[in-house]
């Protein structure tokens, strides 16, 4: 097999793995949590927290206003 074909296969494989592992957890978003906290005024402190979707939010309050649980 040619080097260019192997490289293309490798890139495709890595992108496929990332796509499968980086998709948002469908059970992560919580509509009730969003409705309860969508108008909250969050503090400016920003220690950084990771939501159940794997994204980093400034703080737990910010995550809740977007309907994202923080574990």
Give a structural overview.
With 71 residues, the chain is mostly helical. The chain has one domain (3-65). It has three helices and two strands; from the N terminus they run ααββα. It has a two-stranded antiparallel ribbon with strand order 1-2. A hairpin with a 5-residue loop joins strand 1 (49-50) and strand 2. The chain is elongated.
Helix/strand layout:
Elements: H1 3-22, H2 31-37, E1 49-50, E2 56-57, H3 60-65
Antiparallel strand pairs: 1-2
What labels would you give this structure?
single chain; 71 residues; mainly alpha; two-stranded antiparallel sheet; 3 helices; 2 strands; elongated
In short:
It is elongated, with a radius of gyration of 18 Å. 46% of the residues lie in helices and 6% in strands. It contains 3 helices and 2 strands; from the N terminus they run H-H-E-E-H.
Could you state the order of secondary-structure elements as H and E? HHEEH
Radius of gyration: 18 Å
Structural category: mainly alpha
Number of domains: 1
